[in-house]
């Protein structure tokens, strides 16, 4: 919205700053951060009054969670979403289709997560809405977004998969692009959702991934940068840096209250929406495979659940002491802060590897 102030500029005044994506990204970051600090405590107090017993804790989970986390309110992801939406609408160019598609995915998955959280707290049960219903609704949102992305991608990139490390290689997926992009977006949403099991565990890797994808979006959205790095140029995606900056600012504002011991959980409202956002940015920028590197922690968390379920159904035994894998380490005797910080370190390392793909070609 503030971009339109550039119309008041003569080229040498303060209004000219609003032309620059980097300046507006900084504005989005601080707007979201301040939003989180201002509205965080009032939202937590409201959630406490409305939810009573807070988020129901899994009975089959670590015993310490029942004692330590009982009564903590959920749906804190609404704070991140509010900060993200306000900062994006304020600082991004609203004539950019990629901004609207990513916002659509984020809010769509946020509504699914909200419905799931609402079912849990109203029924005082760890079971929310049907898994099939949740995943099916996510696929519909992902399908719509994937189709829209295919319309706004350049003709030479539309319905094609770019491979990292290979500068000129494109795989034409044709009609299979939409199903592929659906799985990327919905898979990312659910992988982040599975990771969100310890105080602060999911939000920091999400912010790290968002920052990495934001840098990638800025690079592929500028012809000079894309040409120098020999990556595929996707006009318009640079504005997604502003969205990513807003996500990081809102995430930091939320982490202030989610740091151990958490005063609020993000819930599915936050984890599904943020995961969907990461998947959508990756599809928009043609970096779907790089997302699997940058978000490798989420991939491992999801795979640990898949492996556990398949192996248990076939043999009646477990590969991990408990899935997702962060609970496995809890049962191994690792303390919660130890797991969280080590997983943050892994996320940062993977993000640097993902960034390296921009130049190693």
Quickly describe the structure:
With 361 residues, the protein is mainly α. Helix content is 66%, strand content 2%.
Task: Write structural notes for this entry.
This protein is mainly α. It is 66% helix and 2% strand. Helix 7 packs parallel to helix 14. The protein has 14 helices and two strands, in the order H-H-H-H-H-E-E-H-H-H-H-H-H-H-H-H. The mean pLDDT is 91. It has one domain. Strand 1 and strand 2 form a beta hairpin.
Secondary-structure topology with pairs:
Blueprint: H1 21-51, H2 63-68, H3 77-91, H4 97-123, H5 131-152, E1 160-162, E2 170-172, H6 177-195, H7 203-220, H8 223-229, H9 240-258, H10 267-284, H11 288-294, H12 296-315, H13 325-331, H14 336-356
Antiparallel strand pairs: 1-2
């Amino acid at each position: 919205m503030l971009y339109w102030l550039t119309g008041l500029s003569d080229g040498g005044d303060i209004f000219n700053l609003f032309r620059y994506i980097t300046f507006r990204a900084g504005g989005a970051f601080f707007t979201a951060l301040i939003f989180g600090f201002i509205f965080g405590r009032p939202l937590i107090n409201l959630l406490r009054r409305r939810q009573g017993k807070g988020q129901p804790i899994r009975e089959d989970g670590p015993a310490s969670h029942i004692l330590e986390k009982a009564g903590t309110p959920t749906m804190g992801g609404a704070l991140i979403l509010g900060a993200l939406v306000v900062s994006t609408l304020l600082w991004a160019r609203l004539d950019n289709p990629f901004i609207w598609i990513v916002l659509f995915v984020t809010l769509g998955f946020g509504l699914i997560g909200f419905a799931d959280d609402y079912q849990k707290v109203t029924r005082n049960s760890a079971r929310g809405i049907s898994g099939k219903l949740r995943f099916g609704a996510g696929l519909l949102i992902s399908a719509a977004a994937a189709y829209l992305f295919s319309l706004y991608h350049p003709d030479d990139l539309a319905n094609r998969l770019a491979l990292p490390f290979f500068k000129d290689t494109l795989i034409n997926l044709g009609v299979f692009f939409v199903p592929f992009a659906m799985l990327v977006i919905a898979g990312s949403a659910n992988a982040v959702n599975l990771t969100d099991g310890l105080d602060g565990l999911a939000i920091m890797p999400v912010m790290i991934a968002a920052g990495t994808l934001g840098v990638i979006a800025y690079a592929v959205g500028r012809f000079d940068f894309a040409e120098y790095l020999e990556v595929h140029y996707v006009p318009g995606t640079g504005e997604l840096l502003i969205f990513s900056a807003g996500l990081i600012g809102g995430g930091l504002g939320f982490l202030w209250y989610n740091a151990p011991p958490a005063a609020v959980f993000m819930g599915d409202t936050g984890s599904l929406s943020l995961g969907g956002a990461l998947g959508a940015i990756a599809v928009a920028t043609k970096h779907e495979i790089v997302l699997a590197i940058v978000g490798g922690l989420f991939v491992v968390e999801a795979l640990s659940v898949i492996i556990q379920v398949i192996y248990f159904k076939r043999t009646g035994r477990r590969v991990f002491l408990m899935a997702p894998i962060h609970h496995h380490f809890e049962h191994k005797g690792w303390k919660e802060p130890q797991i969280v910080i080590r997983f943050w370190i892994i996320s940062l390392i993977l993000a640097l590897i993902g960034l390296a793909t921009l130049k190693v070609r």
